[in-house]
Amino acid sequence: MKFQRIAGLLEKLAPKSLAESWDNPGIQVGNPQQEIKRILVCLDVSQPVVETAIERGVDLIVSHHPVMLFKGLLNIRTDLYDGRLLQQLLSKNIAVYSAHTNLDIAQGGCNDILAGLCGLERVEGFVPVQGENEDFMGRIGYVGESVTVVEFAKKLCASLNTSHVRLVKGGPDTVHKVALCSGAGAEFISQAAFKGADLYITGDLKYHEAQQGVKQGINIIDAGHFATEFPMVKSLAEYLRKELADIRSDVEVIEDSLSQDFFQVIRREGE
Question: Under CATH, which architecture does the 107-223 domain have?
């Protein structure tokens, strides 16, 4: 199947028109007319992912985070990480397609996946984007049964298959209403508090942003950029398999199961 047709299936789920103005989704590397027989879905186009793609005979990598820098390439230094990555992709004729903020915003995208893993009900859009009320960044909803914020945090660790989350206890002890934004969404803390959320879930939280949550009376869970977004790999792979099966295509879709969070928790001796 042509790369261009697979791109069309991806844009059916997450139209590029949804992407933020600064973003760079779509075809990153390759020829739209290239024949594709095997796809690898991942979060990041990293060195281990590219090595896996080469070993498995992959023709197309579909990632969430774009491989091309947002500000554009000024040079390609093959002695450096990014340049070496591009050299490998081009030399092995491996194409790359990325669906980033458009997949965050899209119905069935990253934030809906995270809301499902959090067990939220009556889920709605959180922050309107692009001046419209129909498309939203993040989601907001309700837990089925009230739990303490600590209990919720422990369950979230299991749901996201992560060893830990960071909890800011700035709000009520019991959780009813939850807002979330996968990846990095600390800029929406005020909106979460304004909408009456007891808890806000995101990643990449800084100290003063945590302090802001306490001042505004809302709990915050920083579950990490990786953990809140990596579940999209499985979901996007399943979507592609279904779409390809519907058109009777024999293109194979595999998932990255090896990547891990860049951050590791090192505990002091005796703990």
Answer: 3-Layer(aba) Sandwich (3.40)
